[in-house]
Specification:
230 residues; alpha/beta; 7 strands; single chain; 7-stranded mixed β-sheet
Amino acid sequence: MNFSSRSYKKELLDGDNIPFADIQQNMQELNFINTYLGGHAITIKGFKQILANRKKITVCEIGCGGGDNLLAIYNWCRKSNIEVQLTGIDYNKDCINIAAARLPETHTRLITSDYKESFFDNKPDIIFSSLFCHHFTNEELLFMLIWMQENAAAGFFINDLHRHFLAFYPIKILTRLFSKSYLVKNDAPLSVERAFIKKDWIDLLEKSGVKPYTITWKWAFRWLIISQVA
């Protein structure tokens, strides 16, 4: 395998006409991976940094999938006595339906849409994405970074994968042995091939004009990118 540059091979999940049961199994396994390999913990770290001392917050996830990241934030806020309103945006209606079954209705707004076609009467305080950016080309990501900065009142953060052979081979073996989802078996290692090294993020952020920003490596082979309004 050559990890010097990003792969643009399409993931199966980005295809059309995937049966609902297969998407549901995929979302369940991604939640398991995020929970036990630290993905949700990284999301909470990004959220807490922008949250600062606020006791009331609005947060929007683009590419929210089955809502597991938003649920992790909601549960943390509830334990921390933070009043939170959640918005999730995903173009896949099946993913939105799964998220709707997971998330508290009174605290959640779910939108079936491409994020680029979503508009806010009031900007959310925080916008974030998790395992979403690697689905896009570098050119598409430039637009996304600018969009996130323009639409977030307090700041945005990104939680995504580090392209590295030590991330690729273990997840390929683990999903082959334990996953029941053909989507996860195919897409999990491919996601690493489509992911980023630090230089990729520096180039993208500099070209987009987003400032300020921080790029921090997190276990297990993740990048946490944060841009916070001063």
